[in-house]
Specification:
Layout (H helix, E strand, L loop, with lengths): L8 E2 H4 L6 H19 L5 H14 L11 E3 L3 H5 L1 H16 L3 H23 L5 H11 L4 H13 L3 H14 L4 H14 L2 H14 L4 H13 L3 H14 L4 H14 L4
Antiparallel strand pairs: 1-2
Helix pairs in contact: 2-3, 3-5, 5-6, 7-8, 8-9, 9-10, 10-11, 11-12, 12-13, 13-14
Length: about 260
């Protein structure tokens, strides 16, 4: 059902809720459907077949083998739900043949109208990226991924202050994600706050010493600050540790060429 959907259902945010009443009700529903499929397998084989199709299709992405940072995704149920869709179609055809045509058409029409209205309401959040990720954050305020993506969109739209605020919240939620630190440093560069940018690029390097873009951008920031010697020293120290960093080598060569310094 296109109801209360979101861009991401982050595992980190969902873990504390696994034993909440909403999750427990879902566990009960799934167990009830399972037992109904087993008990009624002879009386209602079509229902058992539909449930089996769903269970087999959804199992690989059920979380037994974690497929990503999300606990689940709406797209996982697209194919898996086909069995139940066929079951609904079978039921419609069954009652149609039982001369309950008016009742069948009325129920199908009401159902389609409800789905249409819910779908229309849901797709309005796709009006633009900012609206989309704002909705995702409202749906799950504790999702650092949603916060980071909202910040990226705000930064792209030139809303620097709002983007920086969202990056900082994302870092508070997930202090180990170096990408958010890197994005925040880039935002500070755009703002012209180079000292803060240097601070956060340094944090990225400390968290992931093999992330070359942070080294490159830190040197560029030194240049923007007017401290070319610091940039040269930074790049040379980096190449002493990581001689394969071609981007760092290219930037160092450009700076030296601009200063007329021979390699």
């Amino acid at each position: 059902m296109p109801l209360d959907l979101s861009a991401i259902y982050e595992l980190q945010s969902a873990l504390p809720k696994l034993w909440s009443i909403n999750f427990i009700l879902r566990y009960i529903i799934v167990c009830a459907l399972f037992f109904a499929a087993v008990i009624w397998r002879k009386k209602y084989p079509a229902f058992t077949a539909a449930f089996l199709i769903y269970a087999v299709s959804i199992f690989p992405v059920s979380g037994i083998l974690q497929p990503g940072p999300q606990i689940v995704a709406d797209r996982y149920s697209y194919f898996a739900a086909l069995g139940f869709a066929l079951l609904v179609g079978y039921g419609f055809n069954y009652y149609w043949q039982k001369e309950w045509k008016k009742v069948s058409v009325s129920i199908a029409t009401i159902f389609l109208i409800i789905l249409t209205l819910l779908s229309y309401r849901q797709i309005t959040i796709w009006n633009n990226s900012e609206m989309f990720w704002t909705y995702a954050v409202a749906r799950d305020p504790n999702s650092p991924i949603a916060r980071n993506n909202l910040a990226n969109t705000l930064l792209k739209n030139g809303e620097l202050a709002a983007a920086i605020e969202q990056y900082k919240i994302a870092i508070d939620l997930d202090p180990d994600d170096r990408n958010t630190y890197f994005n925040l440093a880039n935002a500070f560069v755009k703002k012209g706050d180079y000292s803060s940018a240097v601070e956060y690029y340094s944090m990225v390097i400390k968290a992931d010493s093999l992330f070359e873009p942070a080294y490159i951008n830190l040197g560029v920031t030194y240049v923007k600050m007017g401290d070319v010697l610091a940039a040269i020293g930074h790049y040379e120290n980096t190449l002493a540790l990581y001689p394969d960093f071609s981007g760092v080598r290219d930037n160092l060569a450009k700076i030296k060429q601009g200063l007329g310094i021979a390699e």
